Amino acid sequence: MSEKVLLVEEANGVATLTLNRPEVMNSLNFPLLHALREQIEAFRFNRRIRVVIITGAGEKAFCAGADLKERATLNPEQVKEFIYTIRNLFSSIEQLNKAVIAAVNGVALGGGTELALASDIRIASRNATMGLTEARLAIIPGAGGTQRLPRLVGRGKAKELIFTGQRVGAEEALNIGLVNKICAPGDLLAECQNMAALICETGPIAIEQAKYAINFGLETDLNTGLAIESNAYWVTIPTEDRLEGLAAFREKRKPLYKGQ
User: Fold this and answer.
1) Which of 46, 54, 71, 79 is the most buried (most CB within 10 A)?
2) 114 an active-site residue?
3) Where are the domains of the chain?
4) Going edge to edge, which strands form the sheet with 51-56?
5) What is the pLDDT of residues 103-157, one digit of tens each?
6) CATH entry 3.90.226.10 includes domain 6-200
7) Catalytically annotated residue among 35, 56, 106, 114
8) 204-251 architecture in CATH?
9) With 80 as the cut, is the pLDDT of residue 212 above it?
10) Is the pTM of this model over 0.85?
11) Which residue in the list 106, 111, 131, 245 is annotated as catalytic?
12) Calpha distance 194→170 (Å, rounded)
């Protein structure tokens, strides 16, 4: 068994979280959920961290969803606690004031796909397999899948995937818009790091406000969404970073943003 269920690395403003239960395809149990929740909340007020990458240990799986062996030992109240915990965790990932990239390095089923859906950007290796397979166990996605998947791939396709419990490969995931990009397995982390590096060149407050405007604006009508965008824009105007961006452009140099 893995000693630490979650591995954490930090470098150059990027934190990489690795689900570290490869012996059970990085499936989610209570200790892993709690470790992930604690780390995400620690990043929220850590100004050094600009981007979070989430991936799985080993070469087979990103995350195979809930640990069904643990689930079999839980009473109905504990199952409710598990669903409550995972749903709130994924919402906190979606609402984190940093960019979150899911590096889908293999099988991502059930809660594994829901974890990817809660991320901002999804990059998958060509051997990845994704799907919300819960209906095959006579349950439904309980960590946001019924809401986030149709918003990403459309209502009809989402119903097809959820009703059938079908799995899709990397190519189809790309074609339907489930992932942003696919690459060779050996290139996955490098691709994610490259994306993270591009994000790290931008203004931290700008990313935070853009993410806020997109997440909340899409849930409203266009006029309300534009008002949300406008208010988010106003937040960036008095910042030192905005003035630094203008100065750097004028002086033909790279800006040095501080998140202030």
Assistant:
1) 54
2) yes
3) 6-200, 204-251
4) 6-11, 14-19, 51-56, 99-104, 121-125, 181-183
5) 999 999 999 999 999 999 999 999 999 999 999 999 999 999 999 999 999 999 9
6) yes
7) 114
8) Orthogonal Bundle (1.10)
9) yes
10) yes
11) 111
12) 20
